[in-house]
Amino acid sequence: MFQIISRTKVVFLSLLMAFVLSERSAAFAQLPASPLVPIEAGDSLTRKASDAVRKSAIAFAKDASTHGGYVYRVSLDRKIRMGEGFAAETEIWVQPPGTPTVGSALLRAYQITGEPAILEAAIEAAEALMHGQLESGGWSDRVNFDPKAKSTGFYRKGSGNPKGRNVSTLDDDKTQSAIRFLTQMDDALDGKNRELHEAVLLSLDSLLSAQFANGGFPQGWDRPVEKHPVSKASFPAYDWRTEGRLKDYWNYETLNDGLAGTVSETLWLAWDTYRDSRYRDALLRFGDFLIQAQLPEPQPGWAQQYNHDLVPIWARKFEPPAVSGRESEDVIETLLFLAGKTEESRFLRPVPAAIEWLKRSRLSDGQIARFYELKTNKPLYFFRRGDIYTLTYADSDLPTHYSFKSKPRYEKLAKRYEQLVVGNLHTEDKSMSSLRKETEAIIATMSETGHWYTDADGKPLNNSLKRPASEVFLDSALFSKNIERLSEFINMASGAQIK
Q1: Rounded (5°) CA angle 130-498-422
Q2: How many CB atoms lie within 10 A of CB 67?
Q3: Strand, helix or coil for residue 477
Q4: Is 172 left (phi over 0), alpha (psi -120 to 50) or beta?
Q5: Is 203 helix (H, G, I), strand (E, B) or coil?
Q6: Contact at 8 Å (CB) between 478 and 82?
Q7: Are 131 and 159 in contact (CB under 8 A)?
Q8: In whole angstroms, what is the distance from residue 89 CA to residue 91 CA?
Q9: Residue 379 and residue 393: Cα distance in Å, rounded?
Q10: pTM for this one?
Q11: I need a surface site. Which of 19, 152, 250, 445 has the fewest CB within 10 A?
Q12: How far apart are CA 245 and CA 251, in angstroms?
């Protein structure tokens, strides 16, 4: 809960907010007064940070939004809009750092400042996502507001294309991020917007319907999944290089691209917000799936993609059946998250063997490989010629579109494991001194208009640089990161307790 400055100020802001939102739906116009962070209790940097949050949030919503939603980055002249590739004028992006990421940052900015215009921008982001909710209950990578466009899906509200794509996806945190933001928005509005509340609960019902009997999830679904016998993970008993390929691998159990962590975070938020036991039960079943999906020695890690028997299989042509370093770290982090939240010790048991495997799998350059060959533990890579990918043990000619190596995180994970073993459930916050330095740097790099600029690749630009508007971009990831950091500092400096 927030600390309230004064009843008079809250009442004033409530009236002002109602006036600003008077043209919106009645449910949104009857928003509850949101308690404010006591900025007056902080020092001058706290007040500067609050002013920066207000200024940047209003500016970003004004200059970067389309139909209330956002893409990854947009040029100052608004002629270039980018998601994963170029985005049409009628498209917004769901996949982070798109609309849900920015929406969450805007909601946090409102909680910090109490500025009604920022709340309105957060509501518009929620409405944009609701517009693009698929008939199957979740989301794809984008929402297109042109009903005749090729990328327009079969949207639940009837505003899309009835013949369009209707596959809800968990790939790259798409559906999960939308659910989390809309859940936060629903909670902030005390569930008083019936349309929003209904959309959130429907999306959660859809997510539950996509959970397999063993607790795992597919990459995507357009209907409730079939149930299959529960198995323990094992190595394939066939030549995995040439056999066992499934054309519809996305219908099977997957851990690709951080799915374990994002699904768990989403289910926990749903349980914490609505206290519906189905969400906690689903989370526990998913945790049990992660335990079952751990491969046996000598490689007690996790694969990126499985079949229903929990045997590693091919996904895309550059994603072989293998033990995955990156996905294994994500699973370990997720198990630690589950152990910390639920205090269930069984989620800690797979961790030590997995960390030891990662330690002995570290490459000579200090990194870990994305893929390790089953049983031999040799790092696997690809080289590419056109559309042809060839499997290799050599890392001298790697394609650049995919992360075949990464910096290891297992030392940090091992430290967190040790904390949980001795009963320390608290996650360490950043030190106040480091937050102050980061806050000062963020404020110093903000332009007079309230923006942080990047180039077309997302690299931050010096705000004093003079470039054509077509070469200067507003970046959703940078904006959201800076808002979160500033909010974290204000929260800590003022002694407020914002979720």
Answers
A1: 110
A2: 19
A3: helix
A4: left
A5: helix
A6: no
A7: yes
A8: 6
A9: 6
A10: 0.92
A11: 19
A12: 13
Instruction: List the one residue out of 270, 262, 226, 17 whose CA is nearest residue 121.
Output: 17
Are 219 and 172 in contact, with CB atoms under 8 Å apart? no
Closest CA to 53 of 6, 122, 4: 122
Task: Please report, as a single letter, which amino acid is at residue 451.
Answer: H
Residue 249 structure tokens: 């691998």
Question: In which element (H, E) is residue 369 found?
Answer: strand 368-369
C-alpha dist (Å) from residue 143 to 63, 134, 230, 334, 370: 19, 9, 36, 29, 31
Largest CA distance in the chain: 73
List per-residue pLDDT tens for the chain, 499 residues long: 333 334 444 344 444 444 444 445 444 544 544 445 655 555 799 999 999 999 999 999 999 999 999 999 999 999 999 999 999 999 999 999 999 999 999 999 999 999 999 999 999 999 999 999 999 999 999 999 999 999 999 999 988 999 999 999 999 999 999 999 999 999 999 999 999 999 999 999 999 999 999 999 999 999 999 989 999 999 999 999 999 999 999 999 999 999 999 999 999 999 999 999 999 999 999 999 999 999 999 999 999 999 999 999 999 999 999 999 999 999 999 999 999 999 999 999 999 999 999 999 999 999 999 999 999 999 999 999 999 999 999 999 999 999 999 999 999 999 999 999 998 877 777 788 899 999 999 999 999 999 999 999 999 998 767 889 999 999 999 999 999 999 999 988 877 656 6
**Residue keyed to tokens 């229903």:** 308
Token couple for 294:
């751990």
Tokens of 368: 């870990």
CA–CA separation, 101 and 364 (whole Å): 36
Q: Where are the beta strands (DSSP E) in 205-324?
A: 220-221, 302-303, 323-324
| Lookup: tokens for 162 | 């009835």
3-state secondary structure 136-189: CCCCCCEEECCCCCCCCCCECCCCCCCCCCCCEECHHHHHHHHHHHHHHHHHHC
Beta bridge partners of 385: 388
User: Do residues 187 and 269 make contact, with C-beta atoms less than 8 angstroms apart?
Assistant: no
**Structure tokens given for 413:** 């994970």
Q: Please report where in the chains the tokens 């374990």 appear, as a residue.
A: 260
Q: How far apart are the first and last CA of the chain?
A: 8
